[in-house]
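Severity: low
Component: inverse-folding endpoint
Summary: output formatting inconsistent between runs
Steps to reproduce: submit the following structure tokens with default settings.
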């Protein structure tokens, strides 16, 4: 079986969705009638918000629909709403990537990182970076 860039990219995003589902499962599982994570832990909400923001910003860049505003999007709310948004957003990334052709994945995209200037990367590299950054944020949440 020949593996191509489309398959690798789709598998990477499927892994991201699976890992985020695992995070949600572990944060919401109940132990003797109590939630595994207290919804009153603001640092968990902040880290989830940062994870959601990172994935959303990269998704905008990948789709060339980036809002050039230097403001970081803030995801607020109860931990259960943030976790639900995380799974939905990761599913949207997988759905989007699943439709991309090999040529579109290889296409170089220009985007801005406020304070650092313009960058040029292929969509595949951007997707790979996105999943890596989200993995880093998941690690921070798990270590909290």
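Observed output (run 2 of 3):
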């Amino acid at each position: 079986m020949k593996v191509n860039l489309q398959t690798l990219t789709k598998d990477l995003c499927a892994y991201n969705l699976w890992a985020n589902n695992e995070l949600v499962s572990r944060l919401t599982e109940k132990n003797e009638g109590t939630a595994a994570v207290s919804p009153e832990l603001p640092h968990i909400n902040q880290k989830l918000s940062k994870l959601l923001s990172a994935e959303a910003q990269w998704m905008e860049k990948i789709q060339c629909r980036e809002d050039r505003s230097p403001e970081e999007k803030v995801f607020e709310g109860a931990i259960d709403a943030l976790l639900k948004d995380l799974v939905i957003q990761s599913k949207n990334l997988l759905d989007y990537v699943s439709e991309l052709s090999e040529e579109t994945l290889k296409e170089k995209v220009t985007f801005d990182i406020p304070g650092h200037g313009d960058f040029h990367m292929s969509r595949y590299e951007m997707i790979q970076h996105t999943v890596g950054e989200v993995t880093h944020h998941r690690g921070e949440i798990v270590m909290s």
